[in-house]
TrEMBL record:
Protein name, per record: Major facilitator superfamily (MFS) profile domain-containing protein
Species of provenance: Opuntia streptacantha
Entry-linked Pfam families: Sugar_tr
Limits of the Major facilitator superfamily (MFS) profile domain: 107-551
Keywords of this entry: Membrane, Sugar transport, Transmembrane, Transmembrane helix, Transport
Amino acid sequence: MASIASAWVSSHPQPTICRPKRSFSLSRIPSRINLTNSSSSSAHPISSSLCIPKFSGKRAMFMENSSTFSMETSLLGRKIQAQKDDYYGGQETTEQEAFSWSSVILPFLFPAFGGLLFGYDIGATSGAAISLQSPELSGTTWFNLSAIQLGLVVSGSLYGALFGSILVYPVADFLGRRRELIIAAILYALGGFVTAIAPNLEVLLVGRFLYGLGIGWAMHGAPLYIAETCPSQIRGTLISLKELFIVLGILLGYFVGSYQIDVVGGWRYMFGMSVPVALLMSLGMWSLPSSPRWLLLRAVQGKGSLQEYKQQAIAALSRLRGRPAGDKISESQIDETLVSLKSSYSDEESEGSLLEVFQGPSLKAFIIGGGLVLFQQITGQPSVLYYAGPILQSAGFSAASDATRVSVLIGLFKLLMTGIAVFKVDDLGRKPLLIGGVSGIALSLFLLSAYYKFLGGLPFVAVAALLLYVGSYQVSFGPISWLMVSEIFPLRTRGRGISLAVLTNFGSNAIVTFAFLPLKELLGAENLFLVFGAIALLSLLFVLALVPETKGLSLEEIESKILK
């Protein structure tokens, strides 16, 4: 059989093909090929044409442990490419994987709690900012906070998230997604507890920073764990639903704030309510298996016994799909993923350097992705969300309870608009939603400016402007910025590119949040929202001029057609 294949290859010279397209076929090669380590010093012609990697050192030992494996060649190109796309977040495979819905819920739910707690912090801080400054309701002797002190309280978690996202990057592959999320949950619980019992401002700020560390770790680990453990045909839906959990958390924060705003020391309850959820998240993640792909990646990297990691991966996948332990389907899927990982890890083992992100196609991708997450923040998004209560209070809702309850209505509207965006983005496209949404953001900011300048006697204008802002943001910058970031970077620099995008997002978020109140005092609310509106117009021009439409394109097509 080998001689037949060799004769065919000799008479049909083939170019080197490292990343076959979906239509790639080896149908003229006999139906089964056995790929083994050859004692010959020359490479097998078929293995050369497929770019099957040569290994030395640890990888040579790894190959010796798995020297014989066979594949149906009619499925070879399609299955390997589908597995590579699946591992790196690429195009969905057309093969439908059998799974139990009951087994999918918990591996999605517990990581998604990380997003829920992030959103809860945004919503709860809105009410806590009012409660903490009230002479009657703060329950403290240090309620008279300056604008800078209040800015530190509000943005403290964002500074922690910024530092956490830096801290987690070099240790994430060592710890694995599951342990990363357990640590995130512990940081959430510790931060919430310290904040709730804080006897003074300094301890409160420490608690806010610890909570922020949990945000940074959770926002890194949650999407990775969900993407690597869920069935491929529902991966996109579940990752999009994580955005809904963030919005749901914001709504819950508003809701808790509205019921605790009239309680003495209510801000302590607002922050402390995150602790039980964080503990539930930690216990839930402890009960879940590690990501099968992470286990196989550790094996490919030579970090342990191949067979041991392989058996752990089979057991983990069986649990995640609701199948009997060690079932043949899971074993077959692990074998296919292992074959793909050995090939793809060799192809991509030399990751792009940090400087490479600022060169060639990667630079273009960073301008698009980094620009979107930057404009997402500097158009005032943190200010509108974190300070919704104070804005409404200054807009005529004199009672703190009135302001926080209107914030709950805004949170419900935000949840509704996020749902619309999640289910329509693949129908309408990314760019049209961005253009329409950013236009609405600019209009809403100009309305807020006009309210503070000319329309102070009409509080419904402020509410309408906030609703317009929230709705426009949730169909544009909210979900689509991160969708574009995940699509636009080339595979070689995707990890580092997304890391820089996360740092850009949290960094600009923290700066805008901290600077809002001092700038409001310096410029006045009408001029500050006017500045935000002008930035929104600039971001609209950015979208029109530079942001491409990626609807319907695979990651390879984006790289070849848009970034070249």
